[in-house]
Amino acid sequence: ERSIQTSAINLRESPQKPSFIPIKEVELSLDQRRTLSEDNPKNPRKDLLSNKQYREYIDGQCNNVQSISELVKKIESYSSNDFIRTWLTFYWIAKNIKYVNGHVDNAADVVFRTKRGVCRGFTYLFSECCRLLNIECVDVPGYVKENWFRIGDALQQATHVWNAVKLGGHWYLLDATWGAGSPNANKLEEFYFLTSPDQLIYT
């Protein structure tokens, strides 16, 4: 089963009459020309997640790497394509980097060395690994559904950032920060790897 993490939206009544018409249901569709859903047979997401050997390799052979370049070399030597390399990179970051609220220096090398960061640090580290692996990757600043947000409020400064990678001619979304799960739980959240946009939009 696919589980979707959602945040509660504050629906407090506004003192002013809202200037929008509430919509009960919105149908979300995916442009398969630009990115592939998990149900598409060309999307290898399920195979990547179910392969225990990939996880065992990272946990065993990449546990004590001393630099980003060493990590990338180990990932590159073990894997045969960019899909596998992307998953191994995501898995290593989500398993080894801890989210620390208020962490100031989020440069990729600092996050790697200290094993700490906020969303920007997770994103920078993932982008740097992709750069060394010659995988096209971009940072995506945006918004998450916060408890304090009210429908009708203006979106201003982006509150979160994640990545998009181009694999096999298609773009895929991933969020290594949320993939790392709760700082206290230390549980990998696979949902945030190559997540379909029509699913990721809910959070």
From TrEMBL:
Domain Transglutaminase-like intervals: 111-178
Source species, domain of life: Eukaryota
Coiled coil regions, renumbered to chain: none
Cross-referenced Gene3D superfamilies: 3.10.620.30
GO cellular component, one term: cytoplasm
Matches recorded under SMART domains: TGc (SM00460)
SUPFAM superfamilies in UniProt: Cysteine proteinases (SSF54001)
InterPro entries to which the protein is assigned, alphabetical: CAP/Cytokinesis_protein (IPR052557), Papain-like_cys_pep_sf (IPR038765), Transglutaminase-like (IPR002931)
PANTHER family assigned: CYTOKINESIS PROTEIN 3
Protein name per its UniProtKB record: Transglutaminase-like domain-containing protein
